[in-house]
Design a protein that fits this description.
about 130 residues; alpha+beta; four-stranded antiparallel β-sheet
Length: about 130
């Protein structure tokens, strides 16, 4: 294996994001996310509190959700799907969907292509309201 140089600190910060350092943005009441935006995609690291929900909605972006902890009842075109850790939900553009977070919190990772403009704005607001230190 050839010896490769390590990236400089500047190069590292241009390419690597430690997502827990990204300020939390509220997506809906009871749900927060660390949002990381790329040129052509967006990743959302969600924590959804028990008893919350996402009303049915649709968006242009294709969405892929990976359930990490807990479970939720995902609504897809008027039917419920109980999803648990390890399940991956694939939602094409403009599919009507939402979700109920029941008795336990649920953590998931969402990937959106292209980036959702409303999430980019929520991230901008979270960054702007973060205390300066």
């Amino acid at each position: 294996m050839p010896e490769l140089p390590y990236a400089s600190d500047e190069e590292f910060t241009q390419r690597i994001v430690h997502y827990p350092d990204v300020p939390l943005a509220e997506l809906v009441p009871g749900t927060t996310s660390h949002i990381v935006v790329g040129e052509r995609g967006l990743v959302s690291f969600l924590t959804m509190s028990a008893g919350t929900h996402f009303p049915p909605h649709r968006h242009e972006a294709e969405q892929i959700m990976i359930v990490i902890d807990g479970y939720m009842d995902e609504i897809i075109e008027g039917k419920l799907y109980r999803v648990k850790p390890g399940d991956v939900i694939v939602l094409p553009s403009n599919v009507l969907h939402g979700g109920y977070i029941r008795e336990v919190d649920c953590r998931a990772i969402d990937i959106f292509v292209p980036p959702r403009a409303d999430y980019v704005e929520k991230l901008r607001q979270a960054v702007a309201s973060r205390p300066r230190g």
